Amino acid sequence: MKFSYYPGCTLKTKAKDLDAYGRRAAEALGITLEELPEWQCCGAVYPMAKDEIATKLSSVRALVSARDLGNDLVTLCSACHHVIKRVNGDMQNDENIRTKANNYLQLETPYAGETKVIHYLEMLRDVVGFDELKKKVVNPLKGRKIGAYYGCMLLRPSKEMQFDNPENPTIIEDFIKAIGATPVLYPFRNECCGGYVTLSKKELAQKKADVILESAMEQGAEELITACPLCMYNLDANSTAHKLPVHYFTELLAEALGVK
Amino acid sequence: MPATEKELAETIRRISGVDTRKCMKCGKCSGTCPAFGEMDIHPHKFVSMVEKGEIDELMQSKSLWTCLSCFACVERCPRNVEPARLIEAVRLAVIRRQGENYLKADQIPELLDEKLPQQAITSAFRKYSK
Amino acid sequence: MSIEETKKEYKPLIVAFCCNWCSYAGADLAGTSRLSYPADVKIIRVPCSCRVNPLFILRAFQRGADGVIIAGCHPGDCHYTSGNYYARRRMTLLFSMLDYLGIERARTRVEWISAAEGVKFSTTMNEFAKTIHELGENKKLEDLRCKELLK
Amino acid sequence: MSSLHKIGVFVCWCGSNIAATVDVAAVAEAMRAEPNVVYATDYQYMCSEGGQSRIREAIKEYGLTGVVICSCSPRMHEATFRKAAQSAGLNPYMVEIANIREHCSWIHKDRMDATAKAIVLARTALAKLNLNQPLTAGESNVVKRALVIGGGIAGIQSALDIAEAGYEVDIVEKTPTIGGRMAQLDKTFPTLDCAACILTPKMVDAAQNEKITLYTYSEMESVSGFVGNFTAKIRKKARHVNEDLCTGCGLCQEKCPSRKAKNEFNMGLNTRTAIYIPFAQAIPNVPVIDTEQCIHFKTGKCGLCQMNCSAKAIDFEQQDEIIERQYGAIVVATGFRPISLERFDEFGYSQNPDVVTSLEFERIMNAAGPTKGQLVRPSDGKHPHCIVFVQCVGSRDTSGCGKPYCSKICCMYTAKHAMLVREKYPDVEVHVFYIDVRTPGKNFDEFYRRAVEQYDVDYIKGMVGKVSSHGDKLQVQGSDLIADKQIIIDADMVVLAAAIEPDPEVRKIATMLTASIDTNNFLTEAHPKLRPVESPTAGVFLSGVCQGPKDIPETVAQASAAAAKVIGLLAKDKLKRNPCVAHSDEMLCNGCSACEKVCPYGAISYMDKEFRVPGPKRTEIRRIAVVNEAVCQGCGACTVTCPSGAMDLKGFSTKQIMAEVDAICR
Hints:
The complex is a heterotetramer of chains A (about 260), B (about 130), C (about 150) and D (about 675).
Chain A: E1 2-6, H1 16-28, E2 32-35, H2 57-69, E3 73-75, H3 78-93, H4 95-105, E4 117-119, H5 120-128, H6 130-136, E5 145-148, H7 158-161, H8 171-178, E6 182-184, H9 202-218, E7 223-226, H10 229-237, E8 246-248, H11 249-257
Parallel strand pairs in A: 1-2, 1-3, 3-4, 5-6, 5-7, 7-8
Helix pairs in contact in A: 1-11, 2-3, 3-4, 5-6, 6-8
Chain B: H1 5-16, H2 28-32, H3 43-52, H4 55-59, H5 63-66, H6 72-76, H7 83-95, H8 108-111, H9 118-128
Chain C: H1 3-9, E1 14-19, H2 23-32, E2 41-46, H3 54-62, E3 67-72, H4 83-101, E4 108-112, H5 118-135, H6 144-150
């Protein structure tokens, strides 16, 4: 099974682990992730305004590039996934954006959202299958009580992201079960960590992260996993009161598959 | 020539793509917003003020810079109103004006710490400046 | 009068066949709710969309109609159980023939509009009238003798 | 032919409804110039006695052979004008309506455009009328028996009223007992009398009334026929308990070892046995075996119920039974259910047992419910100290997760619940999140105000954004719009006023009856104001929530109204049939059978008939189609299918419709 792979900027710098473990685990699962040639930064936030075209072009380029290679596109960073998936939706459904983006890019074949964008977790669920994954685990993480932290970007808006039930998601819990650990459900797993506001309003982000950690600890989680470098930062480096170890989910995946 | 408030309101509605008339004023957005406490104009009021065309006041609002873009209001709105899009549109109306950037490049270094991911800087730049 | 001006004054002629149970009632509801659509649309009441003979549509085009729309109950909701299915099948065949004859596919339409869908009735008619207006006058099937006779 | 016609045209102003946008005098003037038109006039209200007498007088004075009325929709007043024409000696089918109100004056603003269109519509009606033939409606018999589908309060009330008038009624109820949703309720607003106390006597009345037959645990298989003469097939599902032998002692239920099935009557809050009577006052008081739960049906073993039944009523071999019956009228009373809350997980319903729906809360508060009326939390059986009610959960929701309409009953039952809790347990703090409080109804607003002013219920204008568990509390985060604050309440229970939707069975039944249904699965009434209890399908009547959300008083009122309509129908010995039926021209028919294949009613048959022909043979026998006018419903499917053009529809003939097309395209 071969996919085009979009790592994104942060995975090349501060979140190298997220990327490296992700690649190793994919290899162990028999999946080839081909990094897109010459990808550009997705912009990290989805430009919501209807008249923002230029800021969407880098995502369109990545999408076109995957299409031309004939591959589905796998993302790993939540923010990149959010941006690329929604821009792809615009290219499918918003005639104005589609026309303008195509006019600007002057492609040989105009792009209308043909590329299928899936997140690494969706790949595990829908392509590999959690039952299959379970069979390939050599080092089950028995006894570990792990809370899944979803954050915002993967789930919302659910009409566009089509990722999981936005209010009661289960994909990461199913993942945790597959790698042999025990998922801990807690109600704030889909609440915001504070996001980019951490840059200018640290206290606000801290408050948000603390609430999440508190909720997870109360339900008995001993560690958290996430798919987002910014969530990682807010929960790990930026929180004040409650401390829980936070990992990228790919790290645990690699560990379970014996390729860490 | 600077745009009149009425023209501005029209622009906000156009670039946000939001039909504020669909709002039934239930307040679920404000019941849901994780940044509510840090906002001066709360999501439900934001929608109502766009509806009424009170854009000048919104452009001064703290809420523009505290919205986390978490899309909880969008997700839970029973009428598909999407308040986050309105906040983004007003924010754009501010930063698209010459010299009105909320965050300037030379302010960045002092805000950084070694663990902060690039993603945060890029996001903040996209959200706060043009 | 310049060509531009004549174009502006062009008022298309649209014939709408509406089934008595759903779409005609839907049109009534559009009226009761004061949901406007262009006066170019004229409605003929039929008991069921399956009463619409393809000949009626040909006749309309011959007599200079610019667009014809058939509206019936939603699939599964036909007052006569299955009439709208017949209508759908017949019209699919007829429309492809009309297409072959050079009558643009967009000049003909089948829509399902229930008695409760006044809004849908009006938006459908507005859209259709707009489409026909953009397509302009239909001259392909027009039988000029008919016009002569009527003069 | 057309030159023989003398036609009168009457243009209605409808007060200002038409006259404000259409120049009625100009329409009359234009019509006066049309061939065959001998008289044209306009009048303020054509449907009034004054208007009708004008029509009658003109028919006599000018010897009119046909009448065109330019007025409101024919769905509104066609029957009125036909009657007026008939009373002046004109065949009622020589009346045509040009709809210049709903299809013209109400939707167009420009007076020129509207007037021009009104003239075209009037000419179109005239063109059709020129080709009209006088029609005579045939008659058919009325079967003096009514069918009521659904045995809730709506169905029971309709059945009782019909039986009271002396007609036989059958009730078909899919669950094992009649009673419906009302049987699940505790107290009823705004009087707070107990639901069981007012419902169970009615259930008993229905069971004991000799004119009423109950088919419980039964479902509709099929319906055919038409007003006055429906044929219905009812599937009486096997109860595996003989109704005639069972004494209702309940011993079987006591002995049954399979006790894991969710108790539907208690909204799944507790369990029941495999053989069960839904509740103590069930009618009939005969248990039913849930074959999916029963050990005997699953493994062939057990049989404890049979061994213990002294009446020998348990019958594992019992089979479904199909009952076929004729009915003159049908009442649909299929009721409602609360919507599924799977798309509202922000309220934590699926994740926390202490978040309940209002109907579940109703069972908790009910003295005969799973907690014997003790207010306790489902999770730990503890007494709650703070309860939050959330209104409009899934109502007025256009996001696609819920229903776009107001469910109508939630404001009142929430006020009732809040009040009952405060009255019984003054220590419990009660908060209600509301968007609007809607209390139109007699003594309704007073009731709601009592909850606030007398019982200190805290009404908060705002909506809950999220419910999350926090220790053994539920953290309710919501907005208080008046204070412009976000508030957090630590509650012990959360009660969600879930939107209601028609029972999903209604779709199947509507299809059977060819009754129309709207986008929300509510049955459509023939006219939203003037014919609110009739379906557009003749002989089918609507009762209760299947037509739209309503509370008990409204449901009972509508049930009685539907019954009155049924009684009016059954009181007739003969019904006039629709004369607009298909007719085959035997000289053109080649007997190909194409029409028979498309007829949904089986109204077309074939016969061999002898015809005179030129030549030495003199006669020949040909196969021709014959339409049974009593069965034909006049859809016209056959007319288009007929390859030889022999089949035509009276009142909507090919020539008439062609003439209408021509008139529009003139």
